[in-house]
Every structure is written in C-alpha cells, then in structure tokens.
C-alpha cells in the first residue's frame, strides 16, 4: 500500500468558508435538471475544496501538493477516503453518471500549479492555465448533460473569461496574501509597470492599461462564448449558460469602470436579475 493509499483519519481539506453563493455565476441553479443538480454541486464542492488547499496561505507548497495528490488518489479509488469527503463524493458522482474523471484531474493539475507557480509570462501562458483551471468546469457540465463536444470551444472561452475576470477582481488580494500574480508580465513590462503596483491604494495609469488590455482580450472570449447557448440541447443548461454569458459581460463592464485596488468590484443583485432576464429572453427569441 502506498502512502497515498494509506487510510488517514485527519482531513486534508482546508475549507475557506466560500460557497456557491460567493461565485460570480449560478452553480447548479434551479434551471438545471433536478436529478443532475446534486452532481453539479458535487463537482463544485470538489473543485472548491481543492482550490482552498491551493490558496491556503498557512500551508507550504509541498504540503499543498501532498493534499491535492491525495484527493486525486481518492478520486481514482484509493481506500481510506474519509480524509477528503469532497473527493469521495466526487468519485461516487462519477460512478453514478459515467462522466470521465479527467475534468477533475485537470482542475487538480491547475491547483498543483497554483501551489508552485506565482507569475505568468504572457497571455498565452495564462490561457494555458485556464485550460486546466477553468475549461474543465464547463466540460464537466456539458458531459453531465450528454451534450456534443462541439460545444467545448465556446464553453472553454466562457470559462476562461470568467477565470480572468475573477483574477482581475482579486489581483491585489492574490498578491498580498499569496504573492501570486496572474497579470501577464509581458503586459506589465509593455505598460512600464511592475507587480509592486498591486500594493497601491488605487490603480496607477500603468496598471489601468494592463487591466484594460486584459479586458479587451476577455471581451473577445465573451464574444466567442455567445455561440454556446444556441449549441446546447438541454433547455435548462442552455438558459443557464445564456445567463452566465450575460453576467460575464456585465462584470467586464464593471471592471472597465471600476478600480479593483480601491474596492471590491463585483456584481450586484440587480446584475443577476438583469442577466437572467436578458439571457432567458434572448434564448426564447431564438
């Protein structure tokens, strides 16, 4: 029996207290088929707990990697799974639905990267990270609904957009708490800036240039993501994806006008209501 397979009565999870209600988008809302919601929530809980391990400032990188490897082992059938209830529940969900475990392993790959990588060279480097940190979330949902994999490119674009928007929201906090910077170093150099600008109480002109450059690219991702809802067969998922695309566009607009260093730039309840109406009505018209 390997170390990873050995039973452990001590939990490896380090919950941050964040939940589905803290996200910028609905997670397994009532729009999703009732019998599938529990599996959507299981995947979210699995990813949330893995993310919390990677983002725990009290853990050393080696300990984070050990815990994430243990989650992967449980996912693949290791015994003594009581130390990660989220991984055990995800394994049961995969067994019940027949969805591949690859999407779960992909997000674990991203969180292992978070444990050891603190800077991103350029936009392509960041998009490669999103391939593992964000795209698997949409692919899991699509596979769970039995959707065609033709929907993956538009879904990948949407998930990458959401990931980048979240990075922009949290850019100062990520730097202060974890010394982690997702802003591409090439963009910072082009603007004549440096990562230390993230400690300022307000965005400098150089940092504003970087934020706007990233928002320009994110806008292109959102444009590609608009192809997703028409391609989704399941009505509930089609509607939810339309709402999420609308939310991404609204959050991008708020970040364009707001300063994430000065205050938290987020969505308000009215944004969710407006996105729901615009997303659902747009799908009904089509």
Largest sheet: none
CATH superfamily of the largest domain: Farnesyl Diphosphate Synthase
Total count of helical runs of at least 4 residues: 13
One letter per element, helices H and strands E, the order comes to HHHHHHHHHHHHH
| CATH-defined topology of the largest domain | Farnesyl Diphosphate Synthase
The CATH architecture of the largest domain comes to Orthogonal Bundle
Structural class: mainly alpha
Structure description:
There is one protein chain. The protein is mainly α and 286 residues long. The protein has 2 domains: 28-101, no CATH class; 117-286, Orthogonal Bundle (Farnesyl Diphosphate Synthase), CATH 1.10.600.10. The protein is 64% helix and 0% strand. The chain has helices at residues 34-54, 61-75, 85-97, 102-116, 123-133, 135-144, 152-169, 171-178, 185-190, 205-225, 228-231, 235-257, 269-285. Helix 2 packs parallel to helix 3, helix 2 (61-75) packs antiparallel against helix 4 (102-116) and helix 4 crosses helix 5. Residues 1-8 have low confidence and may be disordered.
What attributes characterize this protein structure?
globular; Farnesyl Diphosphate Synthase; 286 residues; 2 domains; single chain; 64% helix; 0% strand; mainly alpha
Set down the secondary structure blueprint.
Layout: H1 34-54, H2 61-75, H3 85-97, H4 102-116, H5 123-133, H6 135-144, H7 152-169, H8 171-178, H9 185-190, H10 205-225, H11 228-231, H12 235-257, H13 269-285
Helix pairs in contact: 1-3, 1-4, 1-6, 2-3, 2-4, 4-5, 4-6, 5-7, 6-7, 7-10, 7-12, 10-12, 12-13
């Amino acid at each position: 029996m390997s170390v990873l397979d050995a039973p452990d009565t001590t939990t490896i999870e380090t919950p941050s207290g964040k939940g589905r209600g803290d996200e910028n988008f609905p997670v397994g809302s009532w729009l999703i088929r009732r019998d599938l919601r529990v599996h959507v929530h299981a995947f979210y809980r699995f990813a949330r707990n893995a993310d919390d391990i990677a983002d725990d400032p009290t853990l050393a990188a080696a300990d984070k990697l050990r815990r994430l490897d243990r989650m992967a082992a449980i996912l693949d059938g290791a015994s003594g799974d009581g130390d990660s209830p989220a991984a055990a529940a995800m394994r049961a969900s995969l067994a019940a639905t027949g969805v591949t475990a690859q999407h779960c392993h992909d997000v674990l790959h991203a969180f292992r990267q978070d444990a050891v990588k603190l800077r991103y060279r350029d936009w392509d480097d960041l998009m490669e990270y999103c391939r593992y940190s964000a795209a698997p979330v949409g692919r899991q949902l699509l596979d769970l609904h039995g959707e065609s994999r033709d929907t993956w490119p538009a879904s990948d674009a949407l998930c990458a957009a959401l990931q980048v928007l979240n990075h922009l929201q949290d850019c100062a906090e990520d730097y202060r708490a974890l010394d982690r910077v997702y802003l591409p170093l090439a963009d910072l150099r082009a603007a004549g800036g440096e990562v230390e600008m993230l400690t300022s109480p307000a965005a400098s002109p150089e940092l504003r240039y970087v934020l706007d450059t990233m928002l320009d690219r994110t806008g292109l991702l959102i444009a590609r993501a608009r192809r997703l809802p028409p391609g989704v067969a399941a009505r509930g998922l089609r509607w939810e994806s339309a709402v999420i695309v609308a939310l991404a566009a609204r959050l991008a607009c708020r970040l364009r006008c707001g300063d994430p260093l000065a205050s938290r730039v987020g969505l308000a309840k009215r944004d969710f209501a407006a996105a729901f109406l615009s997303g659902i009505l747009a799908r009904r018209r089509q």
